[in-house]
Amino acid sequence: MWNFTKTTILMAAMMGLCMGVAYLIGGTQWLLPALMLGGVFNFIAFFFSDKLALASMRAKEVTRADDPALYNLVERLAQRGGLPMPRVYISAMAAPNAFATGRNPRKGVVCVTAGLRQLLNEEELAGVISHELGHIKHRDILLSTVAAIMAAAITYLAHIAFFMGGRRDGHGNPLAALAMMILAPLAAMLIQMAISRSREYSADEYGATLCGKPRALANALAKLQQASSRVPLPVSPAQSNMFIVHPLSAEGASGLFMTHPPIKKRIDRLLGMERELSQLGQLRPREGYSRE
Hints:
Layout: H1 3-26, H2 31-56, E1 59-62, H3 68-80, E2 87-91, E3 98-101, E4 109-113, H4 114-119, H5 122-137, H6 140-163, H7 174-211, H8 214-230, H9 263-280
Helix pairs in contact: 1-2, 1-6, 1-7, 2-6, 3-5, 5-7, 5-8, 6-7, 7-8, 7-9, 8-9
């Protein structure tokens, strides 16, 4: 199944869950308010998520004069991918990581930390930048933001259902209301994380194709995982899905509860692409999304 199709199904499931909780609270009369609630949250996220992400990382925009090597690399890869030049930011954080943000390709932003600049060589940095440009090209930032906001709306509606006893008239089953308060947010979180993992695979494949060196991106992921386990980023768990590798320790977590696919699996897929490259002489161009 194509990752794009899978993501569409997951987003539909998220919306269906939100509407289902609203219906259980108050029947058909609550469907429109639930849609309006989700719309308001998504509108706010659409216009302000990039500013909030950059502010949380205390990132500063850089120009060609500030960091010509980084700026020129981003520019070259963006041109190769047919993308508008994104704004380039650097965070002074020592933890090595990177992320992309922006509500559409024309508003795209690529941000790397000072720790990442020190850790990676030029080929590995190109792989990471290419990965982030994949997120921008396929509007993954907007998709992930909408998924996060929908999850928050479902959690909010589930709490309303609990305090109303599971029904609009307040005479529902308290145990059913309690189950809804627990299970609905859990289901929303699992869907949100599944969307995030799917988009990481697609960005890996696009990034490897764009930079032309899958092994360079694989090496970067290995270095970032090892370094991040020693120097985690001080960010909210709600922001962890935006980074190229999980910024917090996720050891022992079940795959269902991870915002990122296992690094080993990502590396294996990239090395498989490299074998294909060596056999064909070049990577097949892939504008769409990868197969699971």
